Amino acid sequence: MILYNFFYYLICASAVLFYGIGINRAVLLSRKPKHLVADCIKMLITVESSATLSYLILSKALVKADLAELAPFVAVMIFSVISVFVEATVRIITRKSMAEYTVSILCIILSLMESFTLAECVLNACFYVLTFYLLIPVFVAVRKRIELSYPAKDFKNLSLLFISIAVIVLALLTYNVSWLTPGVLQ
Asked: Are 168 and 138 in contact (CB under 8 A)?
């Protein structure tokens, strides 16, 4: 079941490709893909703990008080506190900054809004972060391929990379992925 959900969120419902969460950041990270594993671990710790606390506060307090519309605000507050703590710890241990804000908070809010249980919330947040970091090597490969083809001077910026990403999204959308969602077709 976990592997099924992982491939579903990697191919069918990728937060980066289909929602656009962090696509600019992933393209920027594809220029110098250093410390991706450490960044991924730090982001996983921050996002998972923030999503867990946000879901618990949302389900136990905000829903019962009919204040569910405050969920994004609460998620941002919880994430800010946890992120500062984790960032300070990482800076003390590794002496480098790994701050990532927008992708993390959008993954948390998306996982809160798309889940019914705490387990779904935690797994969805994990899958969103992992797909973000798994697509960076794809972007690196596309970037290297574009550089090797010696594009015209008009295309030296990131336009060819974004066009290539759009083609990848279209290829994923046109392929028959109904085998990933068998419950819908019954």
From this structure: yes
Distance CA 14, CA 73 (A): 24
Considering just the CA atoms, what is the radius of gyration of the chain in Å? 18
Mean pLDDT computed over 170-180: 68
Report the C-alpha gap between 116 and 123 in whole angstroms.
12
Q: How far apart are CA 65 and CA 73, in angstroms?
A: 15
Count of CA atoms in the C-beta half-sphere (13 A) of 142: 20
Residue 100 CA to its chain's centroid (Å)? 11
pLDDT of residue 181: 62
pLDDT in tens, 43-97: 899 999 999 999 999 999 988 888 888 889 999 999 999 988 888 887 888 777 6
Q: Which of 28, 32, 60, 58 is nearest to 158 (CA)?
A: 28
Residues 6+ apart with CB under 8 A from 75: 50, 51, 54, 105, 108, 109, 112
Tokens of 41: 């671990």
- The segment with the largest mean pLDDT, out of 36-40, 154-158, 171-175, is 36-40
Per-chain mean pLDDT for the chain: 82
What gap in Å lies between CA 141 and CA 168, rounded to an integer? 13
**How far apart are the C-alpha atoms of 50 and 57, rounded to whole Å?**
11
